[in-house]
Amino acid sequence: MQSGISSSGRPYTVIVAENSKFQSKQLQQILESEGYQVVGIAETGKELIDLYKKNKQVDLITIENFLPVMDGYAAFWELKDLGVIPRVLFISEENTPAVIKSLLDAGAMDYIVKPIKREKILEKVREIIQKIPKV
Fold first, then answer.
1. Residue 33 and residue 43: Cα distance in Å, rounded?
2. Is residue 6 included in any domain, yes or no?
3. For the chain, what is the domain count?
4. Is the dihedral of CA 14, 122, 114, 98 positive or negative?
5. Residue 84: is it exposed, middle or buried by C-beta count within 10 angstroms (0-12/13-18/19+)?
6. Are 65 and 94 in contact (CB under 8 A)?
7. Can you give the residue range of the structural domain that contains 108?
8. Which of 12, 50, 84, 113 would give a disulfide with 59, using CB separation of 3.0 to 4.6 Å?
9. Contact present, 70 and 49 (Cβ < 8 Å)
10. Which pTM was predicted?
């Protein structure tokens, strides 16, 4: 069975926030190959916030820290201010230990430093989805 499908048969939904069209397409293909449903791709932190407001039931959000307009770090804090913290996985070129630690301490579920590797992405996404049962 594909890891992107819940036990009820519903696909888990994901928002991808990524500044590179190539990498957002790559992430979308990796996730959809396992049955996840990518409900939106945001190219800026502002687009991410708007997308989340329309898809509050989303199961997971992946965020690149280096987003234009509003970076991933600021977008993450804004998501937190909206109330419910969704499951957030950072997939970023940012590799500063202090930044990574502060995001994880603040509630991000995990952090992957690029380059994107299919198996690593799917393994982390599976772990995160299983870690927090949806209410």
1. 22
2. no
3. 1
4. positive
5. exposed
6. yes
7. 13-131
8. 12
9. yes
10. 0.94
